């Protein structure tokens, strides 16, 4: 373990260690349409070609380019789902609609806008006609039968689900949802709906962390607020025994009432590391303990200050959940963004400054106190300021995590 006297870890080292600890959840078959937000456990290939036969991309007439400039006799129709059964012969045309199979014998589609029709006769009106093949989607244009479709570790969003379905996959192999327990702890925390005395505040970290995790396939159990005493924390940790991952907030620092670390040790957990050189979020604690089924439970002790809990939730909890779900790239990624104003020099820790990005430039919130929630609620970005970074002028590109996308590019 990184002990109480050890210096805080760097962000990179702490994230590396945590990713290594991520539980490997069992793989299950899940209906593809129910897989949004899951990560593919195995690569998939196409079980069919798309399209399976050449299709028209436009409404018009299927005919033979050699017969240009026409006229043609319409001998039938090919509609989407209703192919033309015959073959297009010299001088013949088949009425065709978008998505319909190009009939045998035809090698071009004359656009409806470039054609005149009188009874069964079609004439060319457009000049010049579009090149042969222009409005035809060849068989296998999107993917050939057997072609690789999606790699393992990829997050399944709307387009990936559509592609898997089109490729003939009714079921996909993904890791099962994570069982996550979220614990609020602190004597000052009121219960939801309870009238609050001035020494009390509503427990907002638990709902916030649950909302962050709820963007992923996670089954969430919430416990607390738990009082700051060892027996109460022991009861809460016992209740959380079945979870894959436990996240606490508060009680992670060095005060007399910061009991998460001793409570974890009393519950038989091994502390992997404590404290990371980041601001906010320094007192982050990572531990693990064995579960009855021999799997390992990972426990994240996040600092109690709301901005600290959010930033460590973003930098550690969400990546841990992604890694457990089988993500190929679980860590968030920054993009460069132009500063709207100058930024002072950094301190001894890497900082994550609440900021707003308007699509052109990024502005830091004037209130950066880690106890404040309003700047967090206004922010859609975190600006990263490296430890001991020099002051920089307006217009400088700085690394930024975009919060709306979870920092996943
Ligand atoms: N002497 C030192 N004091 C502190 C240090 C230090 O190194 N030396 N570190 C500071 C830093 S940095 C942080 S961050 C905080 C973290 O403290 P804890 O994790 O022990 O959190 P608490 O003291 O329990 O609470 C801090 C703050 O957050 C509020 N809180 C806690 N839980 C919740 C919740 N579920 N919902 C909403 N708000 C919550 C709590 O009321 C406090 O205001 O320690 C510094 N101190
Ligand atoms: O590191 Mo603490 O999280 O600043 O307030």
Question: Any overview of this molecule?
Answer:
The chain contains 7 helices and 26 strands. Helix 3 packs parallel to helix 6 and helix 4 crosses helix 5. It folds into 4 domains: 158 residues, MoaB/Mog-like domain (Molybdenum Cofactor Biosythetic Enzyme, Chain A), CATH 3.40.980; 54 residues, Molybdopterin biosynthesis moea protein, domain 2 (Alpha-Beta Complex); 81 residues, Molybdopterin biosynthesis moea protein, domain 3 (Molybdopterin biosynthesis moeA protein, domain 3, Beta Complex); 68 residues, MoeA, C-terminal, domain IV (Beta-clip, Beta Barrel), CATH 2.40.340. Strands 7-4-6-5-9-8 form a 6-stranded mixed β-sheet, with no helix packed on it. The protein has a 6-stranded mixed β-sheet with strand order 16-13-17-21-20-18, with helices on both faces. The model has no long low-confidence stretch (mean pLDDT 94). It is of the alpha/beta class and 409 residues long. Helix content is 17%, strand content 30%. The protein is elongated, with a radius of gyration of 30 Å. The longest helix has 19 residues. The structure holds ligand LQZAQKY5 and molybdate ion. The site of molybdate ion has 8 residues, from loops. The site of ligand LQZAQKY5 has 27 residues, from helix 3 and helix 6. It catalyses: adenylyl-molybdopterin + molybdate = Mo-molybdopterin + AMP + H(+). Its cofactor is Mg(2+). Belongs to the MoeA family.
């Amino acid at each position: 373990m990184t002990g109480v006297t050890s210096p805080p870890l760097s962000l990179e080292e702490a994230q590396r260690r945590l990713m290594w600890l991520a539980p490997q959840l069992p793989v299950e078959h899940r209906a593809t349409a129910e897989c949004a937000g899951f990560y593919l456990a195995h690569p998939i290939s196409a079980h069919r070609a798309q399209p399976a036969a050449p299709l028209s991309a436009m409404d018009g007439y299927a005919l033979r380019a050699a017969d240009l400039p026409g006229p043609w006799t319409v001998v039938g129709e090919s509609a989407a789902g209703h192919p033309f059964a015959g073959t297009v012969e010299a001088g013949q045309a088949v009425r065709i609609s978008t998505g319909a199979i190009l009939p045998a014998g035809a090698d071009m589609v004359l656009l409806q806008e470039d054609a005149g029709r009188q009874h069964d006769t079609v004439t060319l009106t457009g000049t010049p006609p579009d090149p042969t093949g222009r409005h035809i989607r060849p068989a296998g244009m999107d993917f050939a039968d057997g072609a690789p479709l999606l790699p393992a570790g990829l997050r399944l969003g709307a387009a990936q689900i559509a592609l898997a379905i089109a490729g003939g996959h009714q079921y996909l192999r993904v890791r099962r949802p994570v069982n996550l327990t979220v614990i609020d702890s602190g004597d000052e925390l009121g219960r939801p709906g309870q009238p609050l005395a001035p020494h009390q505040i509503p427990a907002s970290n638990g709902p916030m962390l649950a909302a962050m995790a709820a963007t992923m396939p996670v089954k969430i159990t919430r416990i607390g607020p738990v009082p700051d005493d060892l027996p109460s924390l022991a009861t809460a940790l016992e209740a959380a025994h079945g979870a894959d991952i436990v996240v606490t907030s508060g009680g992670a620092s060095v005060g007399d009432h910061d009991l998460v670390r001793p409570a974890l040790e009393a519950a038989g957990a091994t502390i992997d590391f404590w404290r990371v050189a980041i601001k906010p979020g320094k007192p982050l604690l990572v531990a693990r303990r064995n579960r009855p089924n021999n799997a390992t439970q990972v426990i994240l002790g996040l600092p109690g200050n709301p901005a600290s809990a959010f930033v460590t939730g973003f930098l550690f909890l969400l990546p841990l959940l992604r890694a457990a779900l089988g993500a190929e790239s679980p860590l968030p990624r920054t993009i460069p963004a132009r500063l709207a104003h100058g930024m002072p020099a950094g301190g001894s820790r890497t900082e994550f400054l609440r900021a707003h990005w308007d699509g052109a430039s990024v502005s830091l919130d004037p209130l950066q106190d880690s106890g404040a929630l309003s700047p967090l609620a206004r922010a859609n970005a975190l600006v990263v300021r490296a430890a001991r970074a020099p002051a920089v002028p307006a217009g400088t590109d700085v690394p930024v995590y975009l919060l709306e996308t979870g920092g996943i590019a």
